[in-house]
Amino acid sequence: MESYEERVRNIVNHLTPPREVLMNDCSSSSEEQILNSNETSSSSTLTWNKQELFEYLEAAPQHIKVAKKKLQELLKDPIFAPKYNMNVQQWRELTLQRALVIIKAGAISLAEFNRDPMKYLISMEMLNLVDPSLSVKLGVHFSLFGNAVLNLGTEKHHIKYIKDIDTWKLPGCFGMTELGHGSNVQGVETTATYDKTTQEFIINTPSDSAQKFWIGNAACHGQACSVFAQLYIDNVHYGVHVFIVPIRNADGTTAENVRIMDNGHKLGLQGVDNGRLWFDNKRIPRDNLLNKFGDVEKDGTYVSSIPSKSKRFGSMVAPLVGGRVLIAASALNVSKMALMIATRYAYSRRQFGSKGNEIRIIEYLTHQRRLFPMIATSVALSFAVEKLKRIYCEPNKSSQNVKDLHVWSSGLKAVVSWTKTNILQLTRECCGGQGFSSFNQIALFKSDLEIDMTYEGDNHVLLQQVARNLLVELQKGRYTLTNPNHDSSNIHDYDFQVQTLKWRESDLVSTLSQKIMAQLDQGRSLEQGWNTCLDTITLLGKAFVDRITLEEFQLGIKNAPSSLKAVLELCRNLFFSWKVNEDLGYFLCHDGLATSTAQKIQDSINVLCSDMLPIGLDLVNSFNIPEQFIHAPISKPDYIQEFRYGLKRDY
Amino acid sequence: MESYEERVRNIVNHLTPPREVLMNDCSSSSEEQILNSNETSSSSTLTWNKQELFEYLEAAPQHIKVAKKKLQELLKDPIFAPKYNMNVQQWRELTLQRALVIIKAGAISLAEFNRDPMKYLISMEMLNLVDPSLSVKLGVHFSLFGNAVLNLGTEKHHIKYIKDIDTWKLPGCFGMTELGHGSNVQGVETTATYDKTTQEFIINTPSDSAQKFWIGNAACHGQACSVFAQLYIDNVHYGVHVFIVPIRNADGTTAENVRIMDNGHKLGLQGVDNGRLWFDNKRIPRDNLLNKFGDVEKDGTYVSSIPSKSKRFGSMVAPLVGGRVLIAASALNVSKMALMIATRYAYSRRQFGSKGNEIRIIEYLTHQRRLFPMIATSVALSFAVEKLKRIYCEPNKSSQNVKDLHVWSSGLKAVVSWTKTNILQLTRECCGGQGFSSFNQIALFKSDLEIDMTYEGDNHVLLQQVARNLLVELQKGRYTLTNPNHDSSNIHDYDFQVQTLKWRESDLVSTLSQKIMAQLDQGRSLEQGWNTCLDTITLLGKAFVDRITLEEFQLGIKNAPSSLKAVLELCRNLFFSWKVNEDLGYFLCHDGLATSTAQKIQDSINVLCSDMLPIGLDLVNSFNIPEQFIHAPISKPDYIQEFRYGLKRDY
């Protein structure tokens, strides 16, 4: 055996290459050596039927599967083939033409929006995989404008508008956001003043900060807009209401007393024609008020079944919850697609090692630690997102359903969109230069979906909704506090895992409560106290989502075909260890874990990654993303062939 | 005083708004209340001369300041005005025209590259603020192709090429990366076989994986390429050498025995015409070998002063270090610019609160915790990056300089580019929808600079260089291990701070050494052991950069005008607390901090943010970024005015 000194010398020699050489030192090790160097894998024989896992993750009833297949066929139309090299005008035109193909086929319709929301959701998710501009453009028209007509309007509106919406005869916009007011919708400045002499509303933009801003379809194609405005009758203010306002004539010219400007070039979603709107004493008939929650009679009498202004407002924005559900679901799909692309590349791309036998880059621990925890996280989130979709589509929602829908959609929209952003970043980097090429798909999603964190509710604002709900539950005595578990011998035991995540959430909610109390004791207002705690509030929102994700995952494992349980459990363990590791400072500072347990959890990550190594490729290939949507050349088994001379990609 | 039950009821009432309302509850608090609700600020009277801080951060000698001003004047030419709405061809044409303006003015030249590298660097940094495609296109031509001619070639090459390079008569490419080989440059497949009968080299692309890939200027404008190829003479292999190979004729047609394809649309840098190259028995004269480190005589005799192939290779890639220096410097500039834009917006944008008196969004703790630590980090990094630039520009480098340059450029390129990516993400989100608009500048940088993490050395590979150097130092007995400091009473004391960061680095380097030893004990190869430790290696690389950043910052504070010390110290404390907080799990798991100290550090962040609140705007306005380059409408004092009706931005 070598002496210590000999070994040191040996190491120093190995570690002293020419200083400027930009590579690591694995130049002599073969792939097999590296494979063997991993910790003993307990999962080396893990196998399952890929189609079975695909279908279990897909979790769709039969009629939806049929609809999906039909839409998949439609999406084989060459107009949906990838195309990137366009200026804004070309992007918008292509997106419009794509939208018209969908509409002509009746693949998306408002008629179905309420009747079979799951089918609607899943169709929109699929369009998002093809072209996010397309799904957003149609989403503005159907999920926002159409949804307002459907769920804030009454029969007269349904009769007048639904057919024209379904045929794109009346392309719609959603006029909520103003330059000066995004998150604070209740603060919009646009006014709607009732003129009883003519039985019209007069819509006005009182200042430049009141211009409607970022309005999808407004720059080019929209003809009507559901405008959020403060209602005034005889100088009395009745709060925010929604009105149908014509903004363009059928020939495409701008309507009278409306001014339109273009929002211009953006980071992504170039195909969506976002615009800005001003109204100058724009008169609209009394019938154009979407009057389900509040109406104005001919003589100017205001009638509503909901007396409180803010509760009325709440009812009016309630239908927007669908947008958050769709963002969470779409972000998860895109995460999976990016992981499929990057993981396939990682198992075929080789770099360093002996000539002719270079090492697959997935063998590098840094690569494993970037991809595998995110694969596990995507699988974990599948079950919580699926549950959210089910609650959203529940036709007769209990009051618990309604509350869960609000809290879960807020929390999951925020956490899944951030997770997706993180995954797109990691996969971009894992693919190196190839990740920068539009042809490999990650780039477009990175640009287009960046706005996920902002629209349909800023993520930080949404997490406040989650925290507020938990605090109310605590104050009402409906929240059970959990103790930490300091003596777990098995960190892979679900009971230990869930207790650990429950403890963190519970510790955060009671900390939050105490901190706010302390602020009140110091004579500060609740609002001041709330702002002082926004860091805790954000952590609490995320902790809640982690906990429900773990719980839903465990339910999913319980209900899974037995052949899938082992691989799902591996994912659950990695998800858990990764999540705890990310927040280890909190657990240790607040005595939520013993240091030895924390260390065990930290150490488990590399072992779980080793377990994942033999099956990582099979796992992403079991993801419920139809192969048809993956065209990245680096995702193909022989990526070199995809770049052979003469094979052109002029798009 | 209220009873506990009354207070609870009060809170529950406040916290139970209509469930769907997408806003927080601060609707009744005025800005003043929120301001007062912050912890007592010790810095409320902190003032300094903004110009003084600007100049201290700029740190440029007088002749460079003059050159900067001159370049700033040139950059007022309308061709440099922002423009985004273009397809790839238009982007490339505009970038070329911009490049020609720079070249015609002689603002960047190879002649100066070695003579005054600091001036060259700073000029390139400035171009990057205007248009990263422009700086990258010129960077490929000068810093890569030209640098190869200058520093790998000899006098005959200088005489033949330098003038034509400086005038763009000979636009150049840098043919290092191949489809199959990015990080592993030594593994390139392209061959250069010497034919002594004609005294020519025959350049060949033996397979599709050997095609030169991502070659800037290759798709459209390049006429010559410095090609990295394996040299063979009489079937003997001499390792990688660099050759000047013509790829286009002066009329723009493709040269004989060369095939070119386009890399196509990318996430960013659309103005750079990246292309792919194949060589088919392309014959070039013997003189086209850049022969500074190895030459072939007429009769085929190989001569070199460096006997080892890999050392020779090291010398050939050594000049590339400048690219890493430039990436670090440019990434820091862009970070500062993004922070200036987002911070100015945060101090003027208002949302929620009582009507007519809404709260500036910077008042929200979540906003402060995103922007302020990054402002502090940017200031901190300024001094380390400045030091790196000074080492790089040192005309007579000591061997310590050479080593530091390698390690510092590797570490800082990785850490600063990741920090920049994080800052662009945070500022994008902090600006909400406005962050998504190209007009507000963050979007373009987000797309264009995404590749920073990959080119000029993948960040993970670069951090291995840092770790390897530290391990060698340890093994050679030149690394002093540091003990943790468990009883600090003042976390704002520099000695405590630096000891804490030194301990982490030292703990990681000794852990790494032990882990590798243990692997060797188990019979594994050094390469296997190295791969098993890649997670520790990455942490170590980052820990090293944090430590040198803190040390350089402290030196910068020591040397600063006394009026600037207080604000710089505030930044240092926030930088330190943030960095430790990010990695608290490590400190606590490895007993590097007492739990009570860890908690103190955690708690300090909100207090330091409060201290920053009154001065955050002044601080970013003192950043050394010329106002001329900031055109984002949201960065203007009255951003609403920037969006008034009729003010068009058709670019």
Automatic annotation (TrEMBL), chains A, B:
Residues 173-281 form the Acyl-CoA oxidase/dehydrogenase middle domain. It comes from the Eukaryota. Residues 320-471 form the Acyl-CoA oxidase C-alpha1 domain. One of its GO terms (molecular function) is fatty acid binding. Its cofactor is FAD. Residues 49-169 form the Acyl-coenzyme A oxidase N-terminal domain. Pfam families: ACOX, ACOX_C_alpha1, Acyl-CoA_dh_M, Acyl-CoA_ox_N. One of its GO terms (cellular component) is peroxisome. The keyword Oxidoreductase applies. It is found in: Peroxisome. FAD binds at residues 177, 216. InterPro entries: ACOX_C_alpha1, Acyl-CoA_ox_N, Acyl-CoA_Oxase/DH_mid-dom, Acyl-CoA_Oxase/DH_mid-dom_sf, Acyl-CoA_oxidase, Acyl-CoA_oxidase_C, AcylCo_DH-like_C, AcylCoA_DH/oxidase_NM_dom_sf. The active site is at residue 456. Residues 495-638 form the Acyl-CoA oxidase C-terminal domain. Coiled coil: none annotated. GO terms for biological process: fatty acid beta-oxidation using acyl-CoA oxidase; lipid homeostasis. Keywords: FAD, Fatty acid metabolism, Flavoprotein, Lipid metabolism, Oxidoreductase, Peroxisome. Belongs to the acyl-CoA oxidase family. This is Acyl-coenzyme A oxidase. It comes from Dictyostelium firmibasis.
